[in-house]
Amino acid sequence: MTGRLTVLAGPTAVGKGTVAAYVRAHVPSVWLSVSMTTRPPRPGEVDGVHYHFVDDEEFDRLAADGEFLEHAVVHGRAKYGTPRGPVDRALAEGRLALLEIDLQGARQVRTTMPEALFVFLQPPSWDELVRRLVGRGTETQEEREVRLETARRELAAVEEFDEVVTNDDVRRASEHLVSLMRSRQRPD
């Protein structure tokens, strides 16, 4: 089997990281890309597991050297990017590879890897998305307002994706995602 890239994207606070963590813990056959970011770690985040935390200078050097599959400034603040090398290696090994990224990153990947499977993770409702963002408690009121405005725009992009998964239950959403990944794996 040839590996296939799956891109999981959706609005802020929809639970992309939670779904990806569930897949990491319960489906070891799926390789999960670890993004780089210039933002500081949130409580409980581990460098190299949740993200590779780097400074602006290192991030900019990697971007200039073409080392990212995609990269962007998110919410007008921190830089995020997907290192290209590990993704290429996982696919060459025939692995199912998962990128958990934001909408702008997904759009960049679509231009360079249109054969990937693009999955949109949506909340069960707008009110639930707001509850999750506020309940996270990791952003200031101003940051929450910026993220919610971004989320409104991101939700409108659902039609750009091949598949949609509703995150009303992490286990169910994760299993649906993995089922989609397996059904779309390419034979050699």
UniProtKB/TrEMBL annotation:
Q: What is its EC number?
A: 2.7.4.8
Q: Which residues are in the Guanylate kinase-like domain?
A: 3-182
Q: Where in the cell is it found?
A: Cytoplasm
Report whether Aminoacyl-tRNA synthetase shows up as a keyword of the record.
no
Record-annotated residues binding ATP?
G10, P11, T12, A13, V14, G15, K16, G17
| Record keyword Transferase present | yes
**Origin superkingdom:** Bacteria
InterPro entries xrefs: GK/Ca_channel_bsu, Guanylate_kin-like_dom, Guanylate_kinase, Guanylate_kinase_CS, P-loop_NTPase
Write down the chemical reaction(s) this protein catalyses: GMP + ATP = GDP + ADP
Q: Name one GO molecular function term.
A: GMP kinase activity
Q: Name one GO cellular component term.
A: cytosol
Q: Name one Pfam family in it.
A: Guanylate_kin
What SMART domains does the database record attribute to this sequence?
GuKc
CDD domains referenced in this protein's UniProt entry, alphabetically: GMPK
Q: Which UniProt keywords apply?
A: ATP-binding, Cytoplasm, Kinase, Nucleotide-binding, Transferase
Which protein family is it in? Belongs to the guanylate kinase family.
Protein function: Essential for recycling GMP and indirectly, cGMP.
Q: Which PANTHER family match?
A: GUANYLATE KINASE, GUANYLATE KINASE-RELATED
What protein is this chain from? Guanylate kinase
Species for this entry: Lapillicoccus jejuensis
